[in-house]
Amino acid sequence: MKLPLPPLPTALQPKPKRPSEEEQVKPVEQVKEAGISAVDWVDERTSLSGAARWVMFRKIPKGTNWFYTLGSATMFAFLSQAVTGVVLAMYYDPSVTNAYESARHITNDVFLGEFVRGMHKWGATVMVILIFLHMARTFFFGAYKYPRELNWIIGVALVILTFVMALTGYLLPFDQRSYWATIVANNITASGPLVGPYLADFLRAGPEFGATTLSRFYSIHMLLVPGIIIALIGAHLYLVAKLGTTAPPWLKANGDAPRDLEDRV
């Protein structure tokens, strides 16, 4: 049995604090409490915390590894392209007479312009590589099978749209290399069966490569394709959260993977 400590003499006991000397809340704590109150206020009216828990707190299969991060890496590459593209659009002039000069101005005169343009240029290559690696992982892991066929179709559409983004963005500097490379790519498109000639006319904004072609490519690159990509990424992430991810094939071969859909999600 543990005996209580003897009481301290009155002379040694700490004096009680006066009301004016009460411990005050630190500014950092006040900011933290204000932030929590603001988040609670928003969540009480939108119930977003439930959706966030549904997306983030879900079961994942045994054997999940770094290969499963290729999809997230591709999405963040797209976000990087979106941010750097918005910055470049603030200085770019999509006209035949000023396009090349505005691109040169971004590289040579704008603060960190060469850095941002380099990020956008090489980020496009990185995004293409990552999306192919992600599709390869999905195929070899068998993640395109039931019940994830629709997600596979959305992924294929995202690959095609990524190529369209790369093609339409290649013309925007409007130098000799991008000009003639785009003409070659457009002629290849025109040689396609049935819809090829109509698609080429749509991209050229007419029967011939002219001044309106650049503005057509710019609007497709900046507005049309990114909007479709964002919508498809949203659908893609919803299906991933709803259906879950598949276990690696080597676990399935050993019979360690869950057999029914409920265990997968």
Strands, helices and their partners?
Layout: H1 27-46, H2 48-56, H3 70-89, H4 99-108, H5 113-140, H6 149-170, H7 176-190, H8 196-204, H9 211-243, H10 249-253, H11 261-264
Helix pairs in contact: 3-5, 4-5, 5-6, 6-9, 7-8
Task: Describe the structure in your own words.
The protein has 265 residues and is an all-alpha fold. It has a domain at 67-246: Cytochrome Bc1 Complex, Chain C. It contains 11 helices and no strands. The longest helix is centred in the C-terminal third of the chain and has 33 residues, at 211-243. The radius of gyration is 28 Å and the shape is extended. Mean pLDDT is 88; it is low at 256-265.
Alpha carbon gyration radius: 28 Å
CATH fold type of the domain at 67-246 = Cytochrome Bc1 Complex, Chain C
Order of helices and strands: HHHHHHHHHHH
Strand fraction:
under 5%
Structural shape: extended
Q: Tell me the CATH architecture of the domain at 67-246.
A: Up-down Bundle
According to CATH, what is the class of the domain at 67-246?
Answer: Mainly Alpha
User: How many DSSP helices?
Assistant: 11
- Looking at this structure, what is the CATH superfamily of the domain at 67-246? Cytochrome Bc1 Complex, Chain C
Largest sheet: none
Share of helical residues: 55-70%
Can you give the mean pLDDT?
Answer: 88
List descriptors.
single chain, mainly alpha, Cytochrome Bc1 Complex, Chain C, extended
Quick take:
The protein is mainly α and 265 residues long.
